[in-house]
Amino acid sequence: MTDRLGAPRAEPIFERLALIGVGLIGSSIARAAREMGLARTIVAIDRDEGVVGRVRDLGIADEATGDALAGVRDCDHVILCVPVGACGTVAAAIRDGLKPGAVVSDVGSVKASVVAQVAPHLPEGVAFVPAHPVAGTEHSGPESGFPTLFLNRWCILTPPEGTPPEALERVRAFWTAMGSNVEIMTPEHHDLVLAITSHVPHLIAYNIVGTAADLETVTQSEVIKFSAGGFRDFTRIAASDPTMWRDIFLHNKGAVLEMLGRLNEDIALLARAIRWDDGDALFNLFTRTRAIRRSIITQGQETPEPDFGRRRPD
Amino acid sequence: MTDRLGAPRAEPIFERLALIGVGLIGSSIARAAREMGLARTIVAIDRDEGVVGRVRDLGIADEATGDALAGVRDCDHVILCVPVGACGTVAAAIRDGLKPGAVVSDVGSVKASVVAQVAPHLPEGVAFVPAHPVAGTEHSGPESGFPTLFLNRWCILTPPEGTPPEALERVRAFWTAMGSNVEIMTPEHHDLVLAITSHVPHLIAYNIVGTAADLETVTQSEVIKFSAGGFRDFTRIAASDPTMWRDIFLHNKGAVLEMLGRLNEDIALLARAIRWDDGDALFNLFTRTRAIRRSIITQGQETPEPDFGRRRPD
Ligand SMILES: NC(=O)c1ccc[n+]([C@@H]2O[C@H](COP(=O)([O-])OP(=O)(O)OC[C@H]3O[C@@H](n4cnc5c(N)ncnc54)[C@H](OP(=O)(O)O)[C@@H]3O)[C@@H](O)[C@H]2O)c1
Ligand SMILES: NC(=O)c1ccc[n+]([C@@H]2O[C@H](COP(=O)([O-])OP(=O)(O)OC[C@H]3O[C@@H](n4cnc5c(N)ncnc54)[C@H](OP(=O)(O)O)[C@@H]3O)[C@@H](O)[C@H]2O)c1
């Protein structure tokens, strides 16, 4: 398992790449695409002129603008890097600027809803290859990005039927060059998989942090002091961007509620095992769950260091 | 906030310290007590002769034995570092070896049950100062310990009424010298606080990892591949020692089930907000939870680095 990006490409995959939304993901793509030579010109687009200025200062794109319609003109790859609830509006805003043969993509954490929002706005001759890089941190904004964010992580593509094979291949090559492993599935299956591997974990984390803050028997100051017992782990993902996560839950409602139902069934069994002193049931579950972490580490999706390799006093 | 232990003491606090159970916690105490000069002699006791041999090889104690009764003889501080379910048996086994004036303690993650198990076995003239260092990793065994485990972490003491003040002060000084902040509370309040900051988070983590492994619509291999979306965070605490955690749940039943009930009420509200598109309710919760992580970081209980400072490709 390598921990660096490879040598840059001799020839770019795209001539002109537009990134709409230059937060954690958009700015990480800008940095990785620049480092790997994936586009001759990178155009960063953000609705917030303050962010446009910061992007210029960071020097992570060749051009930066607040005007999405003008920004996408002549681009052969356009990636929406905005919250999933904003994708339809952004697609509508750029439709008249998209050039024939352009490949549009996105990075949204939900896929069926994004496809439904975006596809209707795309003109004939423009291909749509939705993507979701399964990689991130709890931080946001253009300063938080880094070029190796996608390295050794999976990127899921959910191309609609009829997607031109060469559009799919270029998008695949683009993500592969940034170090990702690419997998293809339907938007619906994606949404189910991510509900259990990402969305419900976030919901559970937000929930426990919220509940702990509201208890009348334990003070918030106690919760904070004694958080090293396990609670603090949950606060990381419960510190992720509120807009992004609101949109994810509203746009992947069905799968999230279904997975939550499953979780509730299983927690009821666990509560029962505790109430009736069924130590064996607990012990068996706790042994199985250990094995799953080992597989995640073996497959390079997690650090083998104890405590996530958290900064440790020396 | 310092990240090193201070200078060793000129005079030890205890003459002869016995640690019963030399796993993560016992071996970390051995290392820290040695480094800080907290005891003239450290006796490591483990029921497993193989572990006794490894402890000798590691050189973390002055003496190592498999015989608890002989090991505690002449010791003025004896700390039980075994799973909470084993504390009563261990106390019974050492009672006839305890010297008058000795101070017995433990490190169990549950306190009311440990007090109930241990106190009846202690002879007149032996003080009991139960302790719980809120610090750990998901690893176990004598190799996993390290001397700064307790640095900048809280250690909770739950002395019963009538504990001699000098016994309490020596235990407090012992933990303070290992870098901990000491707080005193009743066993019952401890168990409620830890239920929400540690026990229920572990239960939730074990539960989601178990549920994910058993789904029929998403394969285990998909769960592993796409775990970087949040799921993998939960697998860390769900990889903790099964015996230790079985015992914690069985011995802190009341508080764990009570806190789980609270969590269930709140998750029902969240599910309703998702179902009825109440984006504001979600957004408000997600903003509040962010603030809690900030406090935990400010108070030195968590690393400020994104993604826990997980090893990042450079
Ligand atoms: N963070 C992760 O871990 C992660 C991982 C995989 C995929 N994703 C997906 O990536 C996308 C971006 O997330 P991120 O983490 O990069 O978020 P971020 O750092 O918060 O950046 C979001 C970007 O979207 C822009 N934006 C927000 N609302 C908008 C609107 N209504 N119209 C136009 N632009 C808008 C923001 O503009 P301003 O500059 O005005 O704020 C900002 O540039 C989301 O769809 C998310 O689901 C995130
Ligand atoms: N790990 C944490 O994060 C953490 C944090 C705070 C407090 N604690 C508490 O610390 C205590 C020890 O935990 P640990 O993490 O150090 O566990 P560990 O690394 O698994 O070590 C447990 C030790 O207890 C011994 N032991 C187990 N069952 C026993 C029995 N029935 N009779 C006698 N000895 C027995 C083990 O002996 P063998 O060598 O034979 O296995 C081993 O030496 C537990 O009460 C736990 O609740 C743990």
Automatic annotation (TrEMBL), chains A, B:
GO molecular function terms noted in the UniProt entry: NAD+ binding; prephenate dehydrogenase (NAD+) activity; prephenate dehydrogenase (NADP+) activity
One GO process term, biological-process aspect: tyrosine biosynthetic process
EC number: 1.3.1.12
InterPro entries, sorted: 6-PGluconate_DH-like_C_sf, NAD(P)-bd_dom_sf, PDH_C, PDH_N, Preph/Arog_dehydrog, Prephen_DH
Catalytic activity of the protein: prephenate + NAD(+) = 3-(4-hydroxyphenyl)pyruvate + CO2 + NADH
Family to which the UniProt record says this protein belongs: Belongs to the prephenate/arogenate dehydrogenase family.
Protein name: prephenate dehydrogenase
Organism whose genome encodes this protein: Salinarimonas soli
